[in-house]
Structure formats: C-alpha cells, structure tokens
Amino acid sequence: MRITVLTGAGISAESGLATFRAVDGLWENHRIEDVATPQGFAADPALVHRFYNMRRATAAGARPNAAHHALVDLARHHDLTLVTQNVDSLHEQAGSTDVIHMHGALTGALCAACGHRWPAPLEMRPDDPCPACARPATRPDIVWFGETPFHLDRIWDALDRTELFAAIGTSGNVHPAAGFARHARRRGAECLELNLENSANARDFHRRIVGPASRTVPEWVASLKRG
Asked: Where does it localize (predicted)?
C-alpha cells in the first residue's frame, strides 16, 4: 500500500521537545517575528542564532520514542513517504531514511548569500564565514514564516499517488501542510488523523485516533500489519 505520513510537533513532544503552540513552549519568551522570520534575522542575527543554538542543543539531547520507531517498522511493510514539519532528527535517529524535511533541519546551515549548504555546528554565529563563498551570511537551514517550504513538488506528487494519508501530531494551522489531507482525499485516499485532540482541519479526515503518539502510532502500525 502507498502511504504518506505527515508528522508534526506532537510526535516529538513525547521525546521532550516543546511544541510551537504549547503554553510553556520553546517560543514563549520570543516573538515569532523576532526569531522566525527573514526580517527578524536581518534585524538581529545574533538573537536568532542564540535561539537556534538553544534549540539545536535541546534537540541533540532528545531521543526517538515508540512512535518514531513504529514508522520505521511501517516502512518495512509498505511504500511509505515520510514528511515532517519538525526540524529535529528524531526520525533519522530511529532509523527512518529519506525523510522529507519540509521546514528544514536544525542540523543544517545555509549561506544567505550564495545558497551553499553544509552541516551545522552546535554553535553558530552571525560572523561565521560560508565554506563556499567566505561571506559572513550563515543562517540556520530552516524555513521561516513567510518563506516557501522545501520539497513541495515531491510532496504533492506523493499525495497524488497515495492510498492512505496519515497526519500525526499536527495542529492543522500551518499551511501548506494543513491542506495535504484535503488534497489527498480529493485524489481518493483514505485520510487518518492521529492526535491528542481534533486539529484545525479535522473535517478533512475520514477518521481519527485520539491519544498520545507513542501509543496510537504503534497500535495503528500493528493493525496495518495484521491487515
């Protein structure tokens, strides 16, 4: 079966990574405009780098949970396209390969001047030179608000062909990912939501499984294996 899975912050929350919209979340003491927009980076690159250095250090100490491992097992039995809105590497740590990071990754660095990419060190600074052009234009390889997500052509193609679309731990508030279920449904796919509560786009799903991802995802994967 062709399956496309979209994961959001909810799958990483149980590994200790705070969600974007949580009351006690990672972003609480920072305005989005200051740390997650191109304008914020232009105004105060040192602040943005400090913020992402902190996120990178926190993510480096996190470990995948049962939901991440279950998706590795799913890929062994089905034709799986795994898309994540998360910028951590928990899917890869669990053993998933070819993960589509539509919002970038904390492990990546990007030159804002020439577009060169390279592995990010744990600590990044505004005056870090680009390895390719030597200009001090280093930024995190993250899709900020107002920027276009990565790999959209590949994602839409997978949604066109998928037989089952599952969204795990997503809020349904961030576009274009919030439109994936509706698109897949129109193309004839069954759409399933696994979440702690209904997402903002809950009406786009045929059915939902409510509960923590570390429990619901392994149970769902096991049910698919049973047929």
From this structure: Cytoplasm
Q: Which residues pair with 6 in a beta bridge?
A: 83, 167
Q: What is the pLDDT at residue 20? A: 59
Q: How far apart are CA 48 and CA 201, in angstroms?
A: 31
Same domain, 55 and 80: no
Closest CA to 99 of 90, 107, 112, 108: 90
**Per-residue pLDDT reduced to its tens digit, 102-143:** 999 999 999 999 999 999 999 999 999 999 999 999 999 999
Indicate which residue of 69, 103, 175, 183 is catalytic. Answer: 103
- On whether 88 is known to bind a ligand per the annotation, the reply is yes
Residues 29 and 57 in one domain: yes
Active-site residue flag, 206: no
Q: Is 15 annotated in some ligand binding site? A: yes
Tell me if 169 is assigned to a ligand binding site: yes
